[in-house]
Amino acid sequence: MELKKNQMIELDITGYTAEGNGVGRYNGIAVFVPHAAAGDRLSVKILKTAKTYAFGKIEKILSSSPDRIPVDCPQFSRCGGCVYRHVRYEAECKAKQQRVQDAIERIAGFHYTILNPIVRAENPDHYRNKAQLPVGGGPGGEISLGFYASHSHRIIDCGECLLQPQVFSAAAGAFREWEKRTREDVYDEKTGRGHIRHFFLRLAESTGEVMACVVVNGNGVHNEPELVELLKNNVPGLKSVVINSNRERTNVILGPKCRTIWGQDTITDELCGLKFRISPLSFYQVNRRQAERLYRLAAEYAGLTGGETILDLYCGTGTIGLSMAKNAGKVIGVEIIPQAVEDARQNAEENGIENAEFLCMDAAKAADMLKNRGEKPDVVILDPPRKGCDESLIDTVGKMAPQRVVYVSCDPETLSRDLKRFALRGYKTMQITPVDLFPRTAHVECVVLMSRVEK
Ligand code: SAH
User: Fold this and answer.
1) Residue of the nearest CA to atom 8 in ligand 1?
2) For a 10 Å CB count at each end of the chain, is N or C smaller?
3) Is the Cα dihedral 34, 37, 38, 44 positive or negative?
4) From CA 217, how far away is CA 262, in angstroms rounded?
């Protein structure tokens, strides 16, 4: 029996999708329901239908899952940030573990005993060290400042976010007060007119240093000294105030040019015992504490004894390879974004690391070039974006024949596809450990050890 739009059904939620929606079956049809919890019995209104699945929304909770908890954020139902604020953290971790297990079994065809339990966050809230708050026109001439609604660019006005450190709320408050006094016009995405685009914040957690950055469609803002004063008086740890110019009509938040109007150009954080300088433009892991655990696992899997050559592909600003450099012979990092490569070189220099070189190239092309140059890495590290690795890269890595491949992935589905491809080239998956880098969201990171089993 087919489902129709606006139909009311009763549904038992049995699990979650990769996006974090609850899912249940109705006459063989999968019905996806946002903010549902596994174990709920619901009255659901069907909103959209297709042949094998449908989307619905909760009309009434008939019987509540034991995993349900009271939602502690008033924006949860509208904001696009969190998907798991209505269930206990244990249940969220279980859902993420299940997602990885399903992908490994279904796509790679492996038995799941190689899967370790997910590394949970000690505190699933207040972990983000970066906030990019869009600024829009609000009612009565006041601004709205907050987050985009789910799948949209409508701004939900809220200063506070439970994923962020409290100091960001203080900074947002100071920014609002400045805007109230200055009445600077805000940018309108639809027309490309107006001035203030985003309020951007970063915290170096280990040192407590805070950077505040106003992104403008122009070169500056009126009344910069008052903005600095308000921020200085309200934001503990403030070390840097920056204006970023973005004159493009684009979704990209930051423009290429930064001007420091008070304090330092960068703030400094510590990760795995190394110092990293962070500017508004540098890539840096948003959950420092969990990233550190992820990198430590990657280092354990790399099994270094001191003389190894490490090839760190998709290296970003070099964090993974650099954190292993002192236990290796040499590190070769490869990254496609020039600015990140520059940062990686600077990070190496500032930490006194002399056995690392960085190439600004496509990972597959670089691997091919390095193979032809006769490099024989003992360990290859892969940390690709969501779409995973090109098959040609997996081919080349297979031919380079490293003893170990350590794969860090933010997408269990493409990871599983790639592990299967590696298996066909003589690499056995020994261990998979999910790490909860982004609590309350649907994302899950994994770190994998593969070992070479064939000549
Ligand atoms: N390993 C880093 C960054 C991982 S994010 C860290 O842990 O911080 C993935 C990185 O891959 C990004 O920096 C992105 O710019 C880079 N990238 C994307 N496509 C690439 C390609 N084809 N070749 C090389 N690097 C690429």
Assistant:
1) 316
2) C
3) negative
4) 20
- Which superfamily is assigned to 8-68 in CATH? Nucleic acid-binding proteins (2.40.50.140)
Report, as residue numbers or ranges, the catalytic residues: 410
Residue ranges of the chain with per-residue pLDDT less than 50: none
In the chain, where the domains are located: 8-68, 93-122+287-452, 130-278
For residue range 221-259, list pLDDT tens digits in order. Answer: 999 999 999 999 999 999 999 999 999 999 899 999 999
Fold of the domain built from segment(s) 93-122+287-452: Rossmann fold (3.40.50)
HEC sequence for 76-144:
CCCECCCCCCCECHHHHHHHHHHHHHHHHHHHHCCCHHHECCCECCCCCCCCCCEEEEEEEECHHHCEE
In CATH terms, is domain 130-278 a member of 3.40.50.300? no
User: Given ligand 1 and candidates 297, 335, 391, which is best to mutate, with the most ligand atoms within 8 Å of its CB?
Assistant: 335
Dist. CA 318 → ligand 1 center (Å): 10
Q: What is the pLDDT of residue 300?
A: 98
pLDDT of residue 144: 83
pTM: 0.93
pLDDT at 159: 67
Q: Running DSSP on this structure, what letter comes out for residue 383?
A: -
Whether residue 346 is annotated as binding a ligand: the answer is: no
Is 93-122+287-452's fold the same as 130-278's? no
